[in-house]
Design goal:
about 240 residues; mainly alpha; MetI-like fold; about 0% strand
């Protein structure tokens, strides 16, 4: 139980829960940030190119995006997890299915769809602006316009999407670990998901702190990052009246 020498108590084999939470937060933030950077980069590129080119390419990419979004995200992750894990030639890139690297790759490659839709909408509103027309008039290439004009002017929505992607990856990893499909404690990794998953049934047996404190930390981290996202959205939204 929680006491003076162990503020948050110990687990079933005597390890300090406070120390495990510190290491768990580090691993969970690593998973969230790394996978969010991958997914936001992919989504921003796909959305920018689709929105700027338009036509059949835009239609095809948006239908692919809709196809991914049509399936429940957790079910899709479980299916893709098993498919990727069965391909031995991908093992040097993704690592074992129970590794942190595999979870990062999994969320990074299959979390870009929402970002692509956001960036595409932003690009559609920007590509008819005067500075884009001026760049076209002087013969600027599509690549130059996308990388020098459209993406820099979409930084606000992209940063907001990044914060929400971090939260989604952290909660998603915790969900997978809770059901036994995330990183395993035996691999030397300790994440919030591992701690939450290891506390299944702890409340019924009287070890309430093993479930309560990891869940509280997970909630606080998710709310804090969401508040950062809301602040970035308010700071970058030109429609807000800042003169009041």
């Amino acid at each position: 139980t929680p006491r003076a020498k162990s503020w948050l108590g110990t687990d079933d084999i005597g390890r300090d829960l406070y120390s495990r939470l510190i290491y768990g937060v580090r691993v969970s933030l690593l998973i969230g940030l790394a996978s969010a950077i991958i997914s936001v980069t992919l989504g921003a590129l796909v959305g920018a190119v689709a929105g700027f080119r338009g036509g059949k390419f835009d239609d095809i990419m948006m239908r692919v995006t809709d196809l991914f979004l049509a399936f429940p995200f957790l079910v899709t992750l479980l299916v893709v997890r098993n498919v990727l894990g069965a391909l031995p030639w991908l093992r040097p890139i993704t690592g074992d299915m129970s590794s942190v690297r595999f979870i990062i790759v999994l969320f990074g490659l299959f979390g870009w769809m929402g970002v692509a839709r956001i960036v595409r909408g932003q690009v559609l509103s920007l590509k008819e602006r005067e500075f884009v027309e001026a760049a076209r008039a002087v013969g600027a290439s599509r690549r130059y316009i996308i990388t020098r004009h459209l993406l820099p002017n979409s930084v606000g929505p992209i940063m907001v999407a990044l914060t929400f992607s971090v939260v989604g990856a952290i909660i998603g990893e915790s969900t997978l670990a809770f059901f036994g499909y995330g990183p395993q404690a035996g691999d030397g990794a300790t994440s919030l998901g591992i701690l939450v998953g290891a506390a299944k049934g702890a409340v019924q047996t009287g070890y309430w702190w093993l479930a309560v404190f990891p869940c509280l930390v997970l909630i606080v981290i998710a709310l804090s990052i969401n508040f950062i996202g809301d602040a970035l959205r308010d700071a970058t939204d030109p429609r807000l009246d800042r003169g009041v």
